[in-house]
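WARN no homologs supplied; continuing
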Amino acid sequence: MTVRSLFTTRFYEGRIEDAALLAEVEAASLALSSDDMAGRRWSKDHGYRGYTSYASLDDLPIRDPAFADLKRVLDRHVAAFARECAFDLGGRRLKLDSLWVNVLKPGGTHSGHIHPHSAVSGTVYIVVPPGSGALKLEDPRLPMLMAAPGRTADAAEDLRPFVYAEPSVGSVFLWESWLRHEVMPNQAKSDRISVSFNYRA
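OK structure emitted
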């Protein structure tokens, strides 16, 4: 008997070990959360518990050297992930399309979503207090399982309908942008800071 796993979903877990860079990005993120009034308004109007620059600033790597340095590091991680995904890019590299800051207050969360018009999406974690929430990844086949029975508690990770990726300071998570995911509630007593991004072909 042969049982094969088909249609594998790749998920990349890397690290940024440069403490000085992480500290610079943290300081820049906190400055934005204080100074970016448009982002603060958007966050309040859309029920985002904390601050995000998602809808207000689209030039962070040009605006601030800390994000330019971060982009250069992320470019290398994304290139490695693209190779693992066997993307046929004709000798080119994926390009950064957007990058934004998230300062998630206690109780904050972000419901399930995908990132249209991108090839690879990801998050790098800058400040991660204990209990500040995992990234929940959803099996893309879930809407089509219909009458399928549930899985046993000891089922292999690739058979589960949801997988939880626990970040730590410096974690870099990457996935293909069609993969539905959500941010679990921040149950810590302080803010979690992350930077999310999209790359396109």
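The first strand starts at residue 11 and ends at 15.
OK
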